[in-house]
């Protein structure tokens, strides 16, 4: 019978960089192929590893709260880079910090294409990103004030 994970076992899979609180603490285990995030299973429930870390260090989230990364590194599990927030807080972070990861010049070019007749999927295919990324840019996420 396989050993069942406990909440504290999540730390076995984290490179804690010798306790350096300024550095990201990357997840050393496998990440989800679809979203690239680290997940850990406890009692049959699969959850983001960084959320489990945050619970262990800060305490449980209130209902509807999500774990937010101040470092924007989705595999970072350093509790000093994490905080609880609402989904809206997380979306605001994404917009403020251009989290889609595209250079501003590319976002500008995408914005020009969005004014034309191309579909979001066609633009996504052209730039090798998801349709959701293009829709997010179209809706104002990641455009920044300097565009």
In the CATH hierarchy, what is the architecture of the largest domain at level 2?
Alpha-Beta Complex
Share in β-strands? 5-15%
> What number of structural domains do the residues give?
2
CATH topology (fold) name of the largest domain: Homing Intron 3 (I-Ppo) Encoded Endonuclease, Chain A
Mean pLDDT, all residues: 86
Shape: elongated
Question: How far apart are the first and last residues' alpha carbons, in Å?
Answer: 57 Å
Task: Please give a structural write-up.
- This protein has about 150 residues and is of the alpha+beta class.
- Helix content is about 30%, strand content about 10%.
- It is built from five helices and four strands.
- Strands 1-2 form a two-stranded antiparallel ribbon. It has a two-stranded antiparallel sheet with strand order 3-4.
- Strand 1 (about 40) and strand 2 form a beta hairpin.
- Residues about 140-145 have low confidence and may be disordered.
Features:
147 residues, Homing Intron 3 (I-Ppo) Encoded Endonuclease, Chain A, alpha+beta, two-stranded antiparallel ribbon, 2 domains
Structural topology:
Blueprint: E1 39-42, E2 45-48, H1 49-57, E3 65-69, E4 82-86, H2 87-96, H3 104-114, H4 120-127, H5 131-138
Helix pairs in contact: 4-5
Brief write-up:
The chain has 147 residues and is of the alpha+beta class. 31% of the residues lie in helices and 12% in strands. The chain has 2 domains: 88 residues, Homing Intron 3 (I-Ppo) Encoded Endonuclease, Chain A (Alpha-Beta Complex), CATH 3.90.75.20; 39 residues, no CATH class.
């Amino acid at each position: 019978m396989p050993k069942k994970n406990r909440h504290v076992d999540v730390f076995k899979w984290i490179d804690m960089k010798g306790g350096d609180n300024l550095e990201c603490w990357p997840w050393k285990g496998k990440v989800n192929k679809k979203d690239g995030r680290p997940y850990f299973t406890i009692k049959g429930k699969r959850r983001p590893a960084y959320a489990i870390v945050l619970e262990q260090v800060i305490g449980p989230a209130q209902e509807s709260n999500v774990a937010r990364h101040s470092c924007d590194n989705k595999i970072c599990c350093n509790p000093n880079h994490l905080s609880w927030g609402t989904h809206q807080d997380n979306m605001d972070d994404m917009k403020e910090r251009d989290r889609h990861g595209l250079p501003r010049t590319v976002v500008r070019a995408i914005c020009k294409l969005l004014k034309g007749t191309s579909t979001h999927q066609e633009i996504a295919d052209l730039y090798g990103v998801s349709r959701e990324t293009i829709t997010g840019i179209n809706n104002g996420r990641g455009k920044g004030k300097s565009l």
